[in-house]
Amino acid sequence: MKRTRYVSAATAVVLMTGGPVAVATAAAADPARTATAAPVAARADVTAESAAAAALKHYPGVIESLDKDGSVWHVDVIGKDGKGHAELEVSASGSVTGQNRDTDENAAENKALVSAKVTAQQAMKAALAAHPGQVTTVEWDDDDGTASWHVEVKGKDGKTWDAQVDPTTGKVTQSGSDADSDDDGDGDGDGNN
Fold first, then answer.
1. Which one of 33, 34, 58, 137 is at 20 to 30 Å from 152 when CA atoms are compared?
2. Is 79 buried (19+), middle (13-18) or exposed (0-12) by CB count in 10 A?
3. Quick check: 73 and 48 in contact, CB under 8 A?
4. In DSSP terms, which residues pair with 63 in a beta bridge?
């Protein structure tokens, strides 16, 4: 106990007078102390499910979309009344920051989303049951008049699966992989023009 106090006091004096070079010297001077230091834990990325839970805890409502960009999740939440809206970011550590909040959304435009029987979280579970992997995107889609959840799942094989989940039943109604998509617009699905 006394040795620790003396070493700590001596280290403080060295640090005050020696600056950054003294830090390395002080660490080398007490190998027992550096050997007992806890290893730094590896960063674990937050899953889509965890990002959704963190966002809803920060801003209660209904998730409209959730998308991963690098190690950050972008989550749009509509308030339970349909009028509020928040754009949130969930970091790899799970911390949530609010980027933008509005309280003047058109509640009529959000009525189908707010009253949907199947939430974004349930749509993710349904998509994962159909295609195991990790969810990378969830998005409410009602552009063509028919509402559904669009869920992208990255499988263990590296392929991305697109799933449409019915907001009433939770049934995966349509799905395909990125190998089936027609990204180049020529209609053949090969990705080449």
1. 58
2. buried
3. yes
4. 77
Q: ∠21-23-28 over CA atoms, to 5°?
A: 105
Classified as helix, coil or strand, 77 is strand
On whether the CB atoms of residues 13 and 29 are closer than 8 A, the answer is no
Residues 6+ apart with CB under 8 A from 67: 73, 74, 75, 136, 137, 138, 139
Per-residue pLDDT tens for 100-123?
888 877 788 889 999 999 999 999
- Those residues with Cβ within 8 angstroms of residue 114's Cβ, 6 or more apart along the chain or in another chain: 62, 78, 80, 81, 82, 107
Tokens of 150: 């669009």
Residue 187 binned pLDDT confidence (cut-offs 50, 70, 90): very low
Q: pLDDT digit string (tens) for 71-107?
A: 999 999 999 988 899 999 999 989 998 878 888 777 8
Task: State the pairing for strand pair 62-69/134-141.
Answer: antiparallel
Kindly compute the dihedral angle of the four CA atoms of residues 99, 102, 106, 108, in this order, to the nearest 10 degrees: 70
Structure confidence at residue 145 (pLDDT): 79
The one-letter amino acid at 157: D
Radius of gyration of the chain (CA): 25
pLDDT in the model for residue 128: 94
